[in-house]
Amino acid sequence: MSLxxxxxxxxxxxxxxxxxxxxxxxxxGIGDLAGVRAGLPYLKKLGVDGIWxxxxxxxxxxxxxxxxxxxxxxxPLFGDLAGFDLLMTDARRLGVKVLLDxxxxxxxxxHPWFREALSAPPGGAARSRFHFADGRGPDGSEPPxxxxxxxxxxxxxRVTEADGSSGQWYLHMFTxxxxxxxxxxxxxxxxxxxxxxxxxxxxxxxxxxxxxxGLFKHPGLxxxxxxxxxxxxxDSVNPLAWNQPEVHQVWRHWRTLCEEYTxxxxxxxxxxxxxxxxxxxxxAKYVRPDELHQAFFFDLLSAPWNAxxxxxxISEAMQxxxxxxxxxxxxxxxxxxxxxxxxxxxxxxxxxGLGTAxxxxxxxxxxxxxxxxxxxxxxxxxxxxxVDLPDDVLTDPIFRRTGxxxxxxxxxxxxxxxxxxxxxxxxxxxxxxxxxxxPQPAYFAEYAxxxxxxxxxxxxxxxxxxxxxxxxxxxxxxxxxxxLETPPGVLAFVRGDGLVCAVNFTTAPTPSPVSGAPIxxxxxxxxxxxxxxxxxxxxxxxxxx
Length: 545
Ligand code: NOJ
Prior knowledge:
Radius of gyration: 24 Å
Distance between the termini: 45 Å
CATH class of the largest domain: Alpha Beta
Bound molecules: 1-deoxynojirimycin
Strand order of the largest sheet: 1-2-3-7-8-9-10-11
Number of strands: 18
Largest sheet: 8 strands, parallel, barrel
Strand content: 5-15%
Number of domains: 3
CATH architecture of the largest domain: Alpha-Beta Barrel
Shape: globular
């Protein structure tokens, strides 16, 4: 087991590439691996340490690749293995680490194992890799328990047996096209070892683990004590379906496997878990020294724009996670959430507005916190959520499975604008008639990377400057945080021996905690005053009060 101190991943900044929306090299309107490869110099210039690629494996795309039919391939939509290898070569040359998204909780209904299970008899070995069970009621027509799926509806679907009769049910905590794997089957664990090795042998630097508090279910699959609460939230609240103690053994094993590779070539691999659990203390268990290197701490993302709420989640994380010696992994955006610019308020259509000012301030705050950080593509451009996509273009299964009530995840997945004044904004090559898989609004022109790079006041330059300072200043990255006294609605803290970060959550100006000009600010700042909805960094050996 390696010590957890002073490793690159402890304060790494990783950029999440949602492959289908990053850059399209073929003109089919869907981003691909060659597009990611072409974008690497852009990401290098931004200054991130690595990228996390959303799933690009063969998949029927019922949940945009989180329904994997073959864990060791590339879907033709996104390229092929040779193209993946080229991407790895370029990433290595540029010094950009590459993390893949691994989906161990469930696979696709088109995975050969599930097809085999469907044609096998009840009780057969092929079914034991999943959770098959008889239904309740005299004719077995009711699901085996009362669990709800995360994306709406029951967590069970009934199969038709080979003889045409209504048969057993299988468990799927997401959509019916994503059957949950049974991690109590030793075959499942052995299979994922092979999958990890397949990609580690191709040179990847680690994995983002989907639903890392999932995998195991309570033995016997009893009823949930509060099924209505499970149904009301997208968080993993059913205590019988999530966060079972056995899962930690898997992460210990995967950590050992990564360290085996490190022992051969000295390169530290990184496992980052998507961990949704009720408390920071519970979260800390996933990043014990022999488990995952990182786990996304989503409480910052869920906090409303409010100084007390932010202070509470930061303090809890510092005490309950960093306090145990591990690192906190901060995140404000991802492909499942409404973008910060929109979440924090009105964005305006041209980059002005309160939401934008707040999102800029939040970015500076995140980059100043001790630990690691993840940036979701487009966050560096200050992209707003596209809130007015017509129903007929929405592809998120949550929309369909909630009877068209929840329009949650398409608006943050609209393909990136790169250049020009009209869609496809350089996202797809060639003609302006090429159609991105989700329509880009006209106002995306204001956010194109070309424009952002040319404007030193842009969101992009804020991220780049913040990342550059992070690399150069020893106070940033890992280390301590000490809160300063501040007026209500303002947060300020000192990092290391004198980097001060302050955030004004109110809309009125407030005295800055340090005299003189900041080294970086999220908006225009005059000496000694921190305007409303603004964050800034100062280097100081003296702080007010
Ligand atoms: C979490 C992923 O971030 C999300 O996009 C996906 O739909 C679910 N896990 C199910 O795999």
